[in-house]
Amino acid sequence: MIDHLSPILIGTLGAATPLVLAGLGELVAEKAGVMNLGVEGMMLIGAIAAFAAAVASDGSVTAGLLAGMLAGVLAASLFALLALSLAANQAACGLALTIFGVGLSAFIGQSYVSHSLAGLPALPLPGLSQIPWLGPILFRQDPVVYLAFLLYVAVAWVLARTRIGLILRAVGESPEAAHAIGYPVLGIRWAATLTGGAFAGLAGAYLSTVYTPLWVQNMTAGRGWISVALVVFATWKPTRLLLGACLFGGVTILQFHAQGLGLDLPVELLAALPYLATVIVLVLISRDRKLLRLNLPASLGKPFVPGR
Amino acid sequence: MNLLEPRAEPSRTLQWAAPPIAIGLMLVAGSVLFLLLGRDPVQAFRVFFIQPLESGYGWSELLLKAGPLVLIAEGLAIGFRARIYNIGAEGQLIFGAICAGGVAIHAAGHETAWTLPLMVVAGAAGGMFWGAIPALLKTRFNAEETLTTLMLTYVANYFLSWLVHGVWRDPAGMNFPQSVMFGDGALFPVLTEGNRLNASIFIPLASVLVFQLLVKRSFLAYRLEVGGQAPLAARYAGFPAGATVWVSLCLSGLTAGLAGVGEVAGPIGQLNLNLSPGYGYAAIIVAYLGRLHPLGIALSGLLMALLYLGGEAAQMTLQLPAAITGLFQGMLLFFLLGADAFIDNRLRLPRRTA
Questions:
Q1: Is the Cβ–Cβ distance between A235 and A285 less than 8 Å?
Q2: What does pLDDT average to over chain B?
Q3: Mind listing the pLDDT tens digit for each residue in B301-325?
Q4: Which residues of chain A does B151 touch, with a Cβ-Cβ cutoff of 8 Å?
């Protein structure tokens, strides 16, 4: 059994990385009171921008990742312009961004369907990767996996321990109070939204240039939405988000190892598992209304117009 | 950062002018896009928006595509009025199609006069069932319907994929993931020879009337709206918020399921993996563009259908990817949301404050 388990665990971190990245970005935005349902769209735009940039630069993954982040920021600014500066319905704006992202990426991607990239080799961390069993699972990953973990540490630290984090949370809890004591509520929300866009763009870029280094239409396959659900599941706490993403990473790659585990289930039903699991964890966490209300940023999803 | 200042009163003109403004902006942005792609914008515009309507066949295709869009959007609009955001109509369409397809596959070879009506009932019930799951999860467990409806769309898709790869695969279909072609008794009759438009178009037509009556004449619609916008007031008046959730999701699931029947018992004629070119998502835009109003939705459904036809024409004549339709859809919703912002507000002249 353990022989079959370790390939799953080795693949888990890679599969969890896009969820960690996109989830952290959404968590930052939601902490500031912005519910951006456009994560799926931003990831797709990031994915195709990264792929195009990597192809144009002779397969440079770094160029791809940077282009993906930039594209994610640009996509998020469309959302911010509408949902923040024009105070439009956030749910509808996020949905619009996703529809737009699906269309735009499919449109641009048409000319990239036959290309593929080399991806990134794993970077075994010296010493640590030699630890029996745990070494290959945790420390023989590609660089973006480590980067995602570092970003988790950074986001957790900034939110919990710094002045910036405090202001961000204040804006999310009570934009009126934050406005009254002189903080630029909309500016902070813009910054949080763009940060979320950069993270989502990076997540998409990782998918198209490293994880499966080729372009497939709609290749994010709902991971953006799962990330949004993970933020709820994590009750807006970075550490729970990280654990949740790893859990989902494991569920996602289960389908590729089912035979080894002796699971005689059709592959299509196994592929549906992550989505079913998302529904189940949402139900488990949401049924505890008190827990949810305690952690939910109080102004989440509500537009703020200064002076109204 | 803030571009708005509140109007003293919401603009009634803009309430109705916002959709035409959004359409106009979409056309302008589209022309710029064509220009950037090195196409003559005038010719591209002609190919995209006029050429599809120059023949009787084109009009029949327009109605064929508008049918499911209008039908789904009518159902969604009821929920949106009550602030229940069902964004998984695509999944409800697929599940309805699966249920209707199951009837057709089991009746294959011995269809009767009851086969098609049974398919319609099965499809409606299937879509309703797929919408009822998120309703249960919302009322019982407080789970957000936006995320659950969307997740269930993926589940429905994989379920369909499992069926057409396995038990329901056509044994003579060269291993393609598709079911047998349905018999004539399991298909809506075509209205005129040479076109694909079929009798299922009467379902969305009837839905426009039904929803118009429902919205204008019934107490139910009023209570739904109150239930969504002021749950406490609704409960005080004896209409629990849970009922709003159930009615909204079941009704929109039902219309989406019916749209699924129209597709499999219409132009597709079997179960395969391409049941819908995103009708369930596009219908969200149709509902908003139609101002959540039954007649408005009929108009905006026609426009959205034209975007689909235009995309196909652009692919054939201009060698542009048909995915350009999705791009136009996204832009349209963006512009609409932007224009809507000015109903309650007006533009603030830039003085630097954030």
A1: yes
A2: 91
A3: 999 999 999 999 988 888 888 888 8
A4: 222, 225-226, 229, 275-276, 278-279, 282
Q: Which of A91, A82, A163 is nearest to B84 (CA)?
A: A91
Distance CA B148, CA B11 (A): 35
B218 in contact with chain A, both atoms CB, cutoff 8 A: no
pLDDT band at B250 (very low <50, low <70, confident <90, very high): very high
**B-chain residues near A221 (CB < 8 A):** 154
**Rounded distance between C-alpha atoms, residue A72 and residue A46, angstroms:** 5
**CB of B200 closer than 8 Å to CB of B97:** no
DSSP code of residue A129: G
Q: What is the rounded distance in angstroms from the CA atom of residue A200 to the CA atom of residue A23?
A: 8
**ipTM of the shown complex:** 0.91
Domain with CATH 1.10.3470.10 in chain B: 58-319
Q: SS3 of A35, please?
A: coil
Bridging pattern class, strands B4-6 and A140-141: unpaired
Residues 175 through 214 of chain A touching chain B, CB cutoff 8 Å? 184-187, 190
Domains of chain A: 2-114+140-295 (1.10.3470)
Residue type at A271?
A: A
Among chain A residues, CA nearest to B148: A279
pLDDT digits (tens, 9 = 90+) for A152-186: 999 999 999 999 999 999 999 999 999 999 999 99
Alpha-carbon dihedral B48, B49, B52, B55, rounded to 10 degrees: -150
Q: Which CATH class is domain B58-319?
A: mainly alpha
Report CB contact under 8 Å: B151, A228: no
With beta carbons under 8 A apart, name residues in chain A contacting B87: 95
Per-residue model confidence (pLDDT) at position A2: 59
Measured in angstroms, the CA of B199 and the nearest CA of chain A are apart by 31
Shortest CA distance to A269 belongs to which of B136, B93, B106, B154?
B154
B165: chain A residues, CB-CB within 8 Å:
266, 268
Residue B152's closest CA among A50, A32, A272, A214? A272
Angle at the Cα of B58 from the Cα atoms of B52 and B61, rounded to 5 degrees: 115
Task: Name the DSSP letter for residue A211.
Answer: I
Q: Yes or no: say if B2 and B344 are a contact pair by the CB < 8 Å rule.
A: no
Q: In chain A, which stretches have pLDDT less than 70?
A: 1-4, 259, 308
